[in-house]
Amino acid sequence: MNAVTRARRTRCRPEELLMLLPSCLQNSHCERKITRDVQECRRCGRCKVKDVLDLADRYGVRCAVATGGRLAVELARDRGVKAVLAIACEKELREGMAAIFPKPALGVINARPNGPCTDTDVDVAEVEKTIRRLLRR
Question: N or C: more exposed end of the chain, with fewer CB within 10 A?
Answer without folding.
Answer: C
